Amino acid sequence: MKRWAAETSWAGRRYNDGMTRFAVAFLLTVAVAGCRSNDGSPAARPAAGPNVWAAVDGRQITRDEVEKAYRREGPTQQQLQQQPRAEEQVLNDKLQLLNQMIAQELLIAKAGELKVEVTDTELDNAYNEAKKNITDDQFNKELAGRNLTAADMRDSLRRDMLANKVMEREVVSKVTVTDDEIKQFFEANRSAFNRPEDAYHIAQIVVTPVRANQQVNRSGNDAGSPQEAQAKAQMLMERIKAGASFAELAADFSEDPESAQRGGDLGFVPISQLNRVPAPLRDAVLNAQPGAVNLVGIQGGQTIVLVVAKDTAGQKDPSMPAVREMISNTLKGRREELLRAAFLNSLRNDATVINYLADRIVESQGKATPTLAPAAPGK
What we know:
By secondary structure, the protein is α+β, with helices and mostly antiparallel strands. Helix content is 47%, strand content 12%. A four-stranded antiparallel sheet has the order 5-4-7-6, sandwiched between helices. The protein has a three-stranded antiparallel sheet with strand order 2-1-9.
């Protein structure tokens, strides 16, 4: 799939717009760092049965829970039958997913401590919003294809929302930007505010229908067929609608190695360059308002396009509300990213986290042994 042509943006390479800044980032590095007990001694770890894949302060995360999460977020059984994956690849996917679940468990425990809750009304509204563009028949078929129930999806959404609320309270709400900081940023980047033509600030998540020869994102997730690409893109759209961070999803799942490293951020793309990309991608930008997210399918691939902002030609300065807001969002985004990482590390430092699955993979020297091998279809 053709990539967008993009220029370096004064608004920042990791910009998160207002829609995405309120979401949690499941930082894999934090979860992996927390895979040892607090004293660092394997001998101090309590024994666990083969169905226990991790423990967070004694709360077990079972293989069954990971398998259910994989059925929810990964390819369907039909897709796996059409495009089989090596057992080691599937196990690696589940290890990465387990790391995310460990991070989420830390945040949910914090929610209990802070007395943060998700009401039934909030859950109902979010659930209905996530499936509003899907008919009941399509939704039920998708659930059946993944061996899941509506209750499974609601529970997953509730946990996501709890984690998001904790991040909003403990991270997002505590990040501020002063007038002096906005002015300093402008003065340091004055030349970049003189835009020669209208441009759109864009972010993307690319899903290709073929597998790459090397890892292209943080999780290693990579679709291998048009069917897998479509299913993966739909999963990502559902997570975006549920409030997940666009930048973090791009870093974890986008299959464009260049923009994935920047959280999908393409910076400002001038109109002249937009006119040279495929019409569906161009129209997904030109016909959208800032904050809009659209899914575009081209030749078996899928691209999720986020229009962050539009900027007109000419010299800009902080007296313009749009410029001021964009500088503020850029600075906030940088600080939130740092504070998120520090906050999750802090939670990990105060917890006892054991990743039994990681230990067993090391013990097996990377082999998918019978106790670690992917579950049979429908399990």
